[in-house]
Amino acid sequence: MGQYSTKPIHSVLDLGCGTGSHAIPLAKRGHKVAGVDVAEAMLTRARSKVGPGVDISFHLGDVRTVRLNQTFDAALMMFAVLGYQHENEDILAALKTARSHLHDDGVFVFDVWYGPAVLNLRPSDRVKVIPVGDGRLIRAASGELDVQRNLCKVSYHLWHLVGDRLVNETEETHLMRYFFAQDLQLFCALSGLKLVHLSAFPSLDQTPDEQSWNIFGVATAASLFPQR
């Protein structure tokens, strides 16, 4: 983030912080951090992970509407949080939230699914076996596209096995918006942000292409009151 900022970054807002996987390490590095999430259970877990002497606060709120009445040097929206905003109005609202919490020279970073890769690779049926402490987790995933709305629905079926014994079974569905470079540029501009960087993720020195399902973006905060 520092290479896109005109001054050192001391304060960070993590929008859609979940259990604090980004917010807590940043706070432990000396940043003043605030995290926002819509799920109280996630925030409870995040608070339980914070050690003594760490400058961090967590707030319950929707990334489209939350206002903390303070500004930060940088804002994050990671783990494809922006992709959970399905309609154009929701995307703009979330980006305006980020902008409203940034200083005029602040930096906004995010990751999303990249449209050219999603349409090229397309979601497919996949099965993954994941070792866990007392056994293994089997995850079956399937997906389908709504190309009219730039949405991808991914369904997961998970089985937790200990030996040959099934101890838990769950299902979940995620509906994700995917984006194109021109979309992101326009959404940012309409929200008071200027898109300055797009790369493959996590290979940040690689230009996105039709193999880059996840991409990383950086925008800088434009002045809310431009000089005439």
Which short descriptors sum up this protein?
Rossmann fold; 228 residues; 5 helices; globular; eleven-stranded mixed β-sheet; 43% strand; alpha/beta
CATH structural class of the largest domain: Alpha Beta
CATH superfamily of the largest domain: Vaccinia Virus protein VP39
Determine the number of helices (DSSP H or I, runs of at least 4 residues): 5
Shape: globular
- What count of domains describes the coordinates? 2
Count of extended strands = 11
Annotated CATH architecture of the largest domain = 3-Layer(aba) Sandwich
Low-pLDDT stretches: none
Order of helices and strands: EHEHEEHEHEEEEHEE
State Rg.
19 Å
Write the layout of secondary structure elements.
Layout: E1 11-15, H1 23-28, E2 32-37, H2 40-49, E3 56-60, E4 72-77, H3 88-100, E5 102-114, H4 115-121, E6 126-132, E7 135-146, E8 151-162, E9 165-179, H5 181-190, E10 193-200, E11 214-221
Parallel strand pairs: 1-2, 1-4, 2-3, 4-5, 5-9
Antiparallel strand pairs: 5-11, 6-7, 7-8, 8-9, 10-11
Architecture overview:
This protein is an alpha/beta fold and 228 residues long. It has two domains: 2-114 and 178-221, Rossmann fold; 118-176. Helices cover 20% and strands 43% of the residues. The protein has helices at 23-28, 40-49, 88-100, 115-121, 181-190, and strands spanning 11-15, 32-37, 56-60, 72-77, 102-114, 126-132, 135-146, 151-162, 165-179, 193-200, 214-221. Strands 1, 2, 3, 4, 5, 6, 7, 8, 9, 10 and 11 form an eleven-stranded mixed β-sheet that branches. A hairpin with a 2-residue loop joins strand 6 and strand 7 (135-146). The protein is globular, with a radius of gyration of 19 Å. The two termini are 29 Å apart.
